[in-house]
Design goal:
Elements lengths: L3 E5 L14 H10 L3 E3 L2 E5 L5 E5 L4 E5 L2 E8 L2 E5 L7 H13 L3 E4 L6
Antiparallel strand pairs: 1-7, 1-8, 2-5, 3-4, 5-6, 6-7
Length: 114
């Protein structure tokens, strides 16, 4: 089971629908952030040759030190998988910066604020 970080305007992530970041706001932000790229579909070929794809409106990718990080818009907030390199200050700083520019907060799965 993974751990996510969430960019939200709500007090708790599960309340994001009531105090939402709109898809339009998020997509506008993606266009001005040179580190992000709108990528509404990602695919990966599995060892058995099958292709696994994911489509999501408002999905963005961020190349963090050669590692792809996906930011997924859902229900008024942006979800980011907490990667093993997530303890690195630059990783958290970038996500906090995005949250600040969207007038939002960065919360973990336990609702702790970063």
């Amino acid at each position: 089971m993974g751990y996510d970080l969430n960019i939200t305007r709500a007090k708790y992530t599960f309340e994001s629908k009531e105090n939402r970041i709109t898809l339009k706001e998020w997509e506008s932000y993606i266009t001005i952030d040179p580190d992000l790229e709108l990528q509404e579909e990602v695919s990966q070929t599995l060892p058995n040759g099958q292709v696994l794809s994911m489509k999501s409106e408002g999905m963005a990718s961020w190349n963090y030190n050669g590692n792809p990080v996906m930011l997924v818009y859902s229900d008024g907030h942006i979800r980011v998988r907490f990667h093993p390199f997530g303890e690195e200050p630059e990783y958290i700083s970038k996500l906090k910066s995005i949250a600040n520019k969207l007038h939002a907060r960065l919360l973990g799965d336990e609702q702790e604020e970063y």
